[in-house]
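Notebook entry, structure prediction.
Reason for the run: the old model in the group folder had no record of what sequence produced it. Starting over properly, with the input documented here first.
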Amino acid sequence: MSTKTCTICGNPAYHVSPRGAHFRCEALNSDEANKDPSEKPVSLRPDHRKRNWLITGAVVLAAWAWTGFMGPGTMLNGIVAADECIRFAKEREVFKYGDFKVSDARNLRIRHSSWVVDVFAVGPDKKALESRTCVVDGDTIKITSMLENWYWR
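New structure, fully documented this time:
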């Protein structure tokens, strides 16, 4: 037995016709009568998921542009760029004048789609300090000359 009542006449949902057949009240077939009172009203606001994905994509694209549109290999090299530059400077004996020993690599940064780091060497009396700029780009490592330093600073 239906518990709904007719919104027009207040009678139970099924009415009896004069011929004895049961028929459903037309007022119950309307949209207002079929609404569930526990349902929340439908919002006309647009779905924000698409907008959120667009904003996320724009932020990722902006971060990629900030790095100079680096490839994935070059971007991952930033993790080990400082260590590789120290190893490269020791191997190639970059600091030839005096008994300088490579001590540290600092100031890791991105310039012109490459990782750039400053390699420091300390002199024998611990008072002299020299630096060279090291550039890591994909699979290549190079120590810049004094004439190229301005470009990578």
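Summary: The beta strands are 14-16, 22-24, 101-111, 114-122, 129-137, 140-143.
The old model has been moved to the deprecated folder.
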